[in-house]
Design goal:
With about 525 residues, this protein is mainly α. It is built from 22 helices and no strands.
């Protein structure tokens, strides 16, 4: 059973990483096709869609997966099937309702985003793009629930395969569609972006077809389980949904935290830039931050949080069973691993901002500067994800919602004055303050409810920072040396610089961590396993 679970988790994780990779790499050819303003327009449609899709699904697929798993363990297969059937109806209705609301609200969003007539992108363009992407809301919640159903049966293959297929179909339709519109029909960038955002709907169709195929193949087995149903538990759907919604709300809020901060920028940035007479560059400036730089910055965040959050189930177990020593040990490891992985990645991206921005997009001094300043914010994104996950493990999710809303309030209040004072960089500073407020509250709540002291994390954190300073100075000096001979003016040269500097930085960081035995403290099992392999 354990190996089946591990295999399923591995398959699902692999599927997630493949789809994330595709979701990142497509931006290179897409940016080459539509440019700065096309990219900005694409984001104007996608941020509201991301928030609406989270609200439409409301964490129900994940919760349904847990309920089905729970009742299957009790051999009450009928309860799971009953919940699945009603869930499909609920998801179809919430999806349709979300689609209609977003479709109708598109002009309102557009009027707020396009704050000045001097902006390059016009209100009608934003309306058409938001409406194009809104169609995906009809299918995605419905499709997500089928994934949840399979996961509830410990079957991760359908979810993983459908995820990858969805991303392949979406990216292929997005790139081919934009290419055909621009190069074959010589259409406008606005039409190309409409097609690109509509790709979310096409990708969801592809995923749904895969899931229906799996359903057809596995229905005899699922029906066989149903015939083994004990039928001893009678539970009303009303009771189940009440529990689902109560447990799902914190998940939804945490899941859309990043999108909410981006939405604040989307609704405020352009007006604040217009206030200081910079409406003409507002769209491209916001795209450099919220689309281009954010795509790069989020890479180390997803890797670090995936590793750290994987430790959270054991935190929950230790807390519930009052194993205080184990709880503190797990939390120490979680925070240290997070800092160990996120700090060097964000510092590296900041130092190599120019080749990174050139490789993914084009040579751009403004975009480079944005990425340089924005990259260290990755540490805050990762810290928020992990502190929120720990609060979930301590059953204190309500504080996560409170701290996030307070952080968002700070962001809302500070965004306009900061942007008016520092232009687009002000939006970064407001995000830093907003996330810092949220994280500080989370850390205080963790300290109180887990009776946790940060002394060890603080001491090791200083050591990790010293190693990062040594690594950062070394990479910076080597980068300056290499750019005397190779300039990051093309994608190939930029990639070469990134690879060489990353290898040098990684070797220095690994050597320092190994010699100080920091690696043994942070990754005891992995280091023991490596030692055995090397000695055998």
């Amino acid at each position: 059973m354990g190996s089946k679970f591990m295999r399923g988790t591995f398959i699902l994780t692999l599927g997630t990483y493949i789809s994330k990779f595709l979701g990142l790499i497509y931006i290179i050819p897409f940016f080459a096709l539509v440019g700065d303003n096309g990219n900005a327009l694409y984001n104007y449609g996608y941020v509201p869609y991301t928030i609406f899709i989270s609200i439409a699904t409301a964490g129900i697929p994940l919760a349904v997966s847990k309920f089905i798993s729970k009742y299957n363990a009790l051999e009450e297969y009928g309860v799971g099937r009953k919940l699945f059937k009603s869930g499909l109806v609920v998801m179809l209705l919430t999806g349709l309702a979300s689609f209609i609301i977003l479709y109708l609200l598109a002009p309102t969003f557009a009027d707020i985003i396009i704050a000045d007539k001097d902006q390059i992108i016009k209100s009608d363009d934003v309306v058409s793009v938001i409406r194009a992407v809104s169609f995906a809301l009809i299918i995605v919640p419905f499709m997500s629930l089928i994934r949840g159903f399979f996961q509830g049966h410990q079957s991760m293959g359908p979810s993983a395969v459908s995820q990858v297929v969805e991303q392949i179909v979406r990216v292929a339709f997005l790139l081919i569609g934009a290419l055909v519109v621009l190069k074959v029909f010589h259409g406008s960038v606005v039409t190309a972006v409409q097609v690109a955002t509509f790709a979310a709907f096409v990708g969801a169709i592809g995923s749904l077809i895969v899931l229906l195929w799996y359903w057809y193949k596995r229905k005899p087995y699922l029906d066989e389980l149903l015939r083994k149903d004990k039928g001893t538990i009678q539970i009303s759907l009303k009771e189940i949904y009440k529990e689902i919604f109560i447990s799902a709300i914190p998940f939804v809020v945490v899941g859309i935290a990043n999108s909410l901060f981006q939405l604040v920028d989307q609704l405020i940035h352009n007006q604040a830039m217009a206030n200081i007479g910079l409406a003409k560059i507002a769209d491209a400036s916001l795209a450099a931050l919220n689309v281009n730089s954010h795509k790069i910055v989020i890479i180390p965040v997803s890797l670090a949080t995936a590793f750290s959050v994987s430790l959270v189930p054991s935190i929950t177990d230790a807390f519930v069973n009052h194993r205080e020593k184990q709880l503190k040990s797990q939390m120490n490891q979680t925070f240290q691993v997070l800092l160990f992985l996120t700090l060097p990645a964000s510092i590296g991206i900041s130092i190599l901002a120019e080749p990174f921005y050139t490789f993914f997009y084009k040579p751009d001094p403004f975009g480079t500067k944005i990425l340089m300043i924005y990259a260290p914010v990755a540490i805050l994104f990762a810290l928020f994800s992990v502190t929120a996950a720990i609060l979930q493990g301590l059953n204190q999710q309500k504080f996560t919602v409170f701290s996030l809303l307070l952080g968002l309030l700070f962001k809302l209040i500070l965004n306009t004055p900061m942007i008016e004072r520092f232009q687009t960089f002000g939006a970064i500073y407001a995000t830093v303050i907003g996330y810092s407020v949220t994280i500080i509250i989370n850390l205080i709540v963790i300290k109180y409810f887990a009776n946790y002291k940060y002394r060890l994390v603080f001491r090791r954190g200083i050591l990790i920072i010293i190693f990062n300073v040594i690594m950062g100075i070394s990479v910076f000096l080597f980068y300056k040396l290499i750019t005397l001979f190779i300039a990051p003016e093309t994608k190939s040269m930029s990639l070469l610089i990134i690879l060489v500097c990353t290898i040098i930085g990684a070797v220095i960081y690994f050597y320092l961590s190994f010699k100080s035995r920091l690696l043994y403290f942070l990754f005891p099992e992995q280091m023991q396993s490596l030692k055995k392999k090397l000695s055998s």
